[in-house]
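Q: For a teaching handout, I want to show students what a protein-ligand complex looks like in token form. Below are the inputs, and the small molecule is flavin-adenine dinucleotide. Please produce the holo structure.
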Amino acid sequence: MIQLERKEDCCGCSACEQSCPVSCIRMIPDEEGFLYPEIDKNTCICCGLCERVCPVINSDVNSDESYDNAIAFAAWNIDENLRLSSSSGGIFSALAEKILKEGGIVFGVTYADDFKSARHIVCDSVTDIGKLRGSKYLQSDKQDIFSLVKEALKQGQTVLFSGTPCEIEGLKHFLQKPYDNLFYVDIICHGTPSPKLWAKYVSFRESLAGARTVNTFPRHKKYGWKRYSTLMVFSNKVEYLETFDKDLFMQMFLQDLCLRPACYECKFKKLKRESDLTLADFWGCDQVVPELDDDKGLSLVIVHSERGRRLLQDVNRNGQVKLVEVDAQQVLVGNPCMLYSSKRPERRDEFMNNLDRLKIPELAKAYVRQLTLVDKVKRIVKCVAKRILNKQVIDQLMKIRHRLI
Ligand SMILES: Cc1cc2nc3c(=O)[nH]c(=O)nc-3n(C[C@H](O)[C@H](O)[C@H](O)COP(=O)(O)OP(=O)(O)OC[C@H]3O[C@@H](n4cnc5c(N)ncnc54)[C@H](O)[C@@H]3O)c2cc1C
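A: Here is the structure, written as tokens, with flavin-adenine dinucleotide included.
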């Protein structure tokens, strides 16, 4: 039976709940709004399946293979509207469309009707892709989604499952065997914020607007992809649009105040992933492929399997997606979240403990660090130095590695 000694040891994938043969596990939100397994010990038959499917217990931290095999692409959707309404270059939409047009189904994350929570759903038509498009910056509720994937696979349907790396590994352990008709697509993940904080934030904005939310998109590109903004639209037609560095929720997210405890010690940070493809923002593209940087959104796609490569090639061949191969080592410099967990701020727990007591502006005032001019200069210098050093360290490692082989 799963026994959680530390919250850091549960990524909330729900593989344990969904695999329990006697349904004695339920995912229950804690005081921070994150779901954790709760076990009815009276019903439990101690079969141990929950432990066998847990991706954290069974994580293989040494599984990262060489950098040498990694293939990476700069990629973008040629449909400008799709690209602009996606977080990065709109590659997910192209992959999903291909699977759906060939009669398959696609699993991904959508908001609930009130936009206060997010959950995994299944889509079986191209017109539904919009529900999955765009990043939702909160952890999704998986409910019985892994069981639905299994059912579809058994019926021989082609399935594309998208999610965070821990969700991919949770599903893989849940299924316990490989399926030829399943594509796994994960993302480079900064960490997933508290659903409770997100819901509180939506309510806060609704109280200011005086109406309920009818749409939200945290990666609006009005001021560019790199200066992305949170857009919220309310039922009285009021709109809220603020860049990530000023929006209070994004400040809390990007300063790592509200991530799931497991995200600070993520076991799935590695270059060689369990997925077929990893999608990400191509941060740092100005260093690697400056000629492609038009600030409308560029994806980084890292290929982990032959079937992933074929799927990507198909959407390239049908003309929907443009690809330019890039050096996977160079790419890591601008995307540290591929390999490293976000750092847990000292005041993270204090912030979360005050979630119920303080209002959103009070939380921001007490915990969000505002950058002074000196901070900004320091940050730029640090960033430039880090890039140069990272590049040198990676180059050195590669040289040593090649000498050893
Ligand atoms: C919580 C989170 C953190 C991220 N952190 C980084 C990062 O540090 N660096 C980086 O380069 N990229 C990060 N990304 C990925 C990036 O924002 C894009 O999602 C990715 O590049 C795909 O973009 P796209 O334009 O191809 O498709 P889009 O249409 O923008 O992406 C949609 C895809 O994202 C999935 N998705 C949306 N919300 C969630 C969620 N809450 N949980 C799981 N899957 C979700 C959908 O199911 C769908 O597969 C993060 C995404 C999320 C959701």
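A: Two things your students might notice: Residues 195-257+349-369 form one domain. The CA atoms of residues 229 and 243 lie 4 Å apart.
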